[in-house]
Structures are given as C-alpha cells and as structure tokens.
Amino acid sequence: MAPVTGTVTGTLVLAGTPIGDVADAPPRLAAELETADIVAAEDTRRLRRLTQALGVHTTGRVVSYFEGNESARTPELVEALAGGARVLLVTDAGMPSVSDPGYRLVAAAVERDIRVTAVPGPSAVLTALALSGLPVDRFCFEGFLPRKAGERLSRLRESAGERRTLVYFEAPHRLDDTLAAMAEVFGEERRAAVCRELTKTYEEVKRGGLGELARWAAEGVRGEITVVVEGAPEAGPGELDAVELVRRVRVREEAGERRKEAIAAVAAEAGLPKREVFDAVVAAKNAAAEGSASGKGLS
After folding, report:
1. Which of 89, 142, 194, 291 has its CA 20 to 30 A from that of 186?
2. pLDDT in tens, 128-165
C-alpha cells in the first residue's frame, strides 16, 4: 500500500562502487557513506575496506544485504524508508541491482512510492563494451549464463540470431566451457573480447574469434571476467553459404523450433527463398547419411 498523500518518506540511494581502482569512486559516494541513516552492504567487510580507502566514517547503522538475506531484509529496509530514513545500498563492485542485490528493494520502494535515486559509478558492462572494439551503438546485457551445460546451450541458442552486441559476466573457472559453447552456437569466427580484471593492476583485454578465445581460455584464466560478443551478421541474399544456413536451422531446432518453422525463420533472416534453405538442409542430411553408410561399409 502506498503511503498517505503528503507523508514524507525517506530516500533509497543506489551507489555505484569501484570495480577495481578505488580512485574511480564517484565523489558523492563518500558524502553518502558519511550521512546515510542506514548503509546496506553486500559484504560489510568489503565496505569497511572501502571506507578506509576513502578515508570516511559511516555514522549510520550498517547492515548486510546479499543474495542469501535479500528477501528477508527488504521489508525491514522498506519500513525504515517509509519512516523517513535515508538508506544507501552498495554492492561489492559496480551498480546495485545489475547482476547484484538491489532489484527487490528498488521494486518494493517504488511500490510504496518511496523516492529512489542513484550515485552513478563505474560499470563493468559499459567499460568492457567500450574496450572491446566491437559495435557499441546497440547492445544487450545477458548477465551470467546458467552453470549447467545444457541450460547454457539453450540460453545461447535463444540469442543465436541476436544482431546487437552481447555482454556477459562469467566466472573464470567456467570461462573455457562458456567460450566453447559460444563457438558452437555462434560460430568459431564470431568476434569477441574477454575483458579481465578491469581497472585493476593486471587488466587484460583478449580479442579474437570465439574458437581462438576458447582455446586460449583452456589454459586457465583468473580474475573478474566480462565477455563481449559481436552480434549476428546482417547477411544479404546469397551471402550465407549452405553450411551456415544448415547450422542456423540446427541451432533453432535444438532450441525447440520445428524444422519447417526454423527453415522459414532462417530464410527470412538471410533474405532467401525458403526452398533454398530447405534444399541445403536436405543436402546436408543426405550427405550425412551417405557418410554413415560408407563408414559401415569400411568396417
């Protein structure tokens, strides 16, 4: 229920924090940390290190607000806001609610007609996008992919025809598997950039085709990872060879589309007659069958 008209409520402040270099902290962050009635932090120990590095002292109450207690703590913070408190929300790095705790609290505050504002700060998404060397005019943020291989492939197949640049977060120990899955779904030659340890001492941006990057990552990669992938090409009539047409149909079929629907969609994407895509699929099927028969004859 929204507060009674005229009632003065508090303010929820979403504050961006450095993604690596503490010197990147926005100037307003120090003032907000010192004056907030409540500071909700994803990790209170990291918050302590941040305030020490900034040379500030929090005078308000500090509470933890992370994935494990987000649902339970949100009502408590909303009531404090409704009572007039200024609540500052900070996460370990970057902007709260962007693949970090915060969305539930923002949604609950909006529902109660409580003012929500932000202290803009560093963003791993935009930093990686800018450094990637890939198109930045249109992009979409996909967050973390599922951990299970099958679910990860399904999610990637949903984006197989996406023409905007794609941005993902990934854990270093899963990077090689993720890049290999991307190479399988998007194609080994699709351009990408792996951005590691952004703004930190060992910052590195590795650019290349997905196949090449998957082989590089197999040797082991450490640090915070953001992956930027080029969108699907806007191919005109005749620009896609039969192998690529068949691959696109297969990707759609594996995502759950019927073959007839997949062929029609690929034909529309490529600007080709459906018959041409159908013939390519049939030819590939016949070639696979002939190869299988030949193999049996040799055994």
Report:
1. 291
2. 999 999 999 999 999 999 999 999 998 998 898 899 99
Any alpha helices (H) in 160-273, and if so which ranges?
Answer: 175-186, 210-217, 242-254, 259-270
Which parts of the chain fold into alpha helices (H)?
Answer: 27-35, 44-54, 70-82, 103-111, 124-132, 149-158, 175-186, 210-217, 242-254, 259-270, 274-298
pLDDT in tens, 221-239: 999 999 999 998 875 555 5
User: Assign residue 12 a region: left if phi > 0, alpha if psi is -120 to 50, beta otherwise?
Assistant: beta
Strands 86-90 and 11-15, by their bridges, are parallel
Its pTM stands at 0.76
Cα(97)–Cα(117) distance, integer angstroms: 13
Name residue 26's amino acid: P
DSSP characters over 141-173: EEEEPPSSHHHHHHHHHHTTT--SEEEEEE-GG
